[in-house]
TrEMBL record:
Hydrolase keyword on record: yes
Residues of the AB hydrolase-1 domain: 57-300
InterPro entries per record: AB_hydrolase_1 (IPR000073), AB_hydrolase_fold (IPR029058), AB_hydrolase_sf (IPR050266), Epox_hydrolase-like (IPR000639)
GO MF term set: hydrolase activity
Organism annotation: Rhodopseudomonas telluris
Spans traversing the lipid bilayer: none
Keywords: Hydrolase
Name of this chain's protein: Alpha/beta fold hydrolase
Amino acid sequence: MIAIGVFTTLAVLALVTQIGVVWLQAKFAPRGEMIAVRGGALHVVDLGPRNLAEPPIVLIHGASSNLGAMQMPLGDRLAQHHRVLLIDRPGHGWSRREDLADSSPAMQAREIGEALDRLGVPRAVFVVHSMAGALGARMALDQPDRVAGLVMLAPVTHPWRGGVGTYNKVMTTPVVGPLLAYTITLPLGLMLTDAGARAVFTPQAKPADYVDATATPLLLRPRAFLANSWDLTGLKAAVQEQVARYQQITVPTVVIHGDADKIVSVDIHSRAFAAAVPHAKLIVLPGVGHMVQNAAPDLVQREVEALIAPAVTRSQAAMR
């Protein structure tokens, strides 16, 4: 009888999850173009004027989110004067990733580069947040000619003490992880999403409409949640592998981090990264938490735009 009860409960939760997925995908429909790449497809939102001599700005979100986390505070305002490309990282938002376990920053940088090639974008200024800091650094290492400038916002760049949460390890466990993802993750997550978002913004206040405005609940779909867990569990080893190469980064680099960030340590990551990268500019914001782009959008915009004009000059010089 107990076994029948457990099976029935799981079946009901699985049905609720599938209904929830349909509801979420109708509520938060894709807003951009799907670009086919090896291993899946990337969802790209293209904003702002197209016919500019300057390189476009590519915005890439961190963990547990999608491109909406970068569009709300930065993308729309930058697009008033610049071409802006917002990208759902592989497996997140509306981007598809065939192999969920293949989660490395190197793979994600390669697929983003491939998508930009298909869009006819040879160079861009990259703005990356949080976990995407490892991806941005990898892009500068593996594809330096593509990177006209790099702005790192509260980035993950170095190994740290501890892990990334027991539940992420459980989610990457064969059988158990998918079972949980397709049963309890979505209904439970809907109850916890708002509180989780508030914690990420601390000590700043979360915008009242943030969760829906950024389509954050898309994370709770089974494959997206599993992709996020694989990203996080593999992140520490990935940055360990690339950290010794940071002194090879030659692209113009700006690092912006709040000293009140409880999610990503400014000392372990940004200070160490800025010290390793030749000529990197480090800006530490007193009293600011993890969501730098929301707390100081004017500053971030100025730093991004400061990288564009020199990039145009370098491109013009190269053409002579």
